Amino acid sequence: MYAACFAFVVACGPSEFPGEEVPEPAPKFDLAAIQQPLAADCTSTYTLTKDVAQSNLSGAQGSWSCIYKLTVPSGVAGLTFKTTGGTGDVDLYVRYGLTPDATAYDHRSMGTTNEDQITIEPSQSGTYYVRLYGYGAYSGASLTATYATPCTSSTIIDMGRTYSNINTPQGLFSCGYMITIPSGANSVTFTTAGGTGNADLYVRRSDWPRADAYDCRSTGYSNSESCTLYYPTAGTYYIKLYGTSASSGAQLLVNMDRPYTAPVLVRGQPYVDVSMAVGEQRRFEIDMPWGKNNVQFFTSGGTGYANLYVKFEQAPTLYNYDCKVDGISTSTNCSMGWGKTGRYYVLVEAKHTPITGMRIGVNYTDYYN
User: Fold this and answer.
1) Which pLDDT tens digit goes with each residue over 272-317?
2) What's the rounded mean pLDDT across residues 184-212?
3) Are 350 and 321 in contact (CB under 8 A)?
4) Domain boundaries of the chain, sorted by first residue
5) Which residues sit opposite 195 in a β-bridge?
6) In 3D, which of 107, 137, 131, 136 has the Cα closest to residue 119?
7) In the chain, fewer beta carbons within 10 Å around the N or the C end?
8) What architecture does CATH give domain 31-145?
9) CB neighbours of 92 closer than 8 A, spacing ≥ 6?
10) Which CATH number describes the domain made up of 271-366?
11) pTM of this structure
12) C-alpha–C-alpha distance, residues 200 and 246, integer Å
């Protein structure tokens, strides 16, 4: 019986039994460590340029390539050196500040072809030196260095408008976005969605957010993030995304909940048959969506004299306004042109005579939907 079992194991091998692990291939032998450099090895030094390949590289078995150096600025992420293409088996060695060799290197990649890659995260500013070793003879290989740099541009954004195609490298913050939040808001919600990858959302009042300095953040596992500030202090808020992993094609949207303090104007639905005593004032408000043009506030119809005052994001007075029309009847029109995204405040005053039967409204066109 035991002989039969033994014969079965030998014939079938361990892989026939469920749950048995198949041994991994043995690691590549460190040939460079025991082989003397060749007399014909290149000792010249060449400068690498970010994202520009050194191409058509070749070498004999046991040879070391020329030396390549890359100067890396501060604040970058995802520093990567890679070899691709051609035939044979080349290995990749990288060292900070000095030329690498078989026994002195910071990083190396020993694949079984010309496809090798080293990513250094975090990296430091300064000069990295790179050399290739011919584990076997190789030809037609390319060497490339790349890294991501932080974005320094910023965009002032509108409430209620979606901003698309936001890209964020891994380990870095995205370009910046700024939005002004007026006083009196119940809440402001910042939302990101869409695209691929994993970008976290950071918001801060009065300055750019950092990983350790923010007023609101969301750190999920995709580009879908949301954070809400309740009763926020008025001011400028700064928004950035952080690439937990590389992210592309994300969208950003900011929405605000703010109570009205006066009757609300609606396009195409004017208040009608309005009557006012001499000297009486009426106030109205409207939150103008993004992308509206030919914005006009008006009074019309009925009898009397009406004065019209309009101001953006602040209640107008008889002496502080963005637009004023002194009417000689009830027909007035304040033309604001391209509408700003936010709240408009309107004041109508019955001047000199009572007003009866008047209409008060707003019109605009949809330049963007």
Assistant:
1) 999 999 999 999 999 998 889 999 999 999 999 999 999 999 999 9
2) 96
3) no
4) 31-145, 154-257, 271-366
5) none
6) 107
7) N
8) Sandwich (2.60)
9) 81, 82, 83, 108, 109, 116, 117, 118, 130, 132, 133, 143
10) 2.60.120.380
11) 0.74
12) 11
Q: Find where tokens 């639905």 sit.
A: 269
Choose among 153, 195, 156: nearest CA to 175: 153
Per-residue pLDDT, 8:
38
CA 233 to chain centre: 24
DSSP state letters, 142-174: EEEEEEE-----EEE--TT--EEEEEE-BTSB-
Q: How far apart are the first and last CA of the chain?
A: 83
Q: Is 65 helix (H, G, I), strand (E, B) or coil?
A: coil
Q: Whole-angstrom Cα distance, residue 114 to residue 16?
A: 35
What tokens were used for 330? 């009830």
Specify whether domain 154-257 bears CATH 2.60.120.380: yes
C-beta of residue 183 within 8 angstroms of C-beta of residue 221: no
Is 154-257 the same fold as 31-145? yes
| Bridge partners (DSSP) listed for residue 247 | 168
Read off the pLDDT band of 7 (50, 70, 90). very low
Q: Strand pairing of 87-96 and 163-168?
A: unpaired
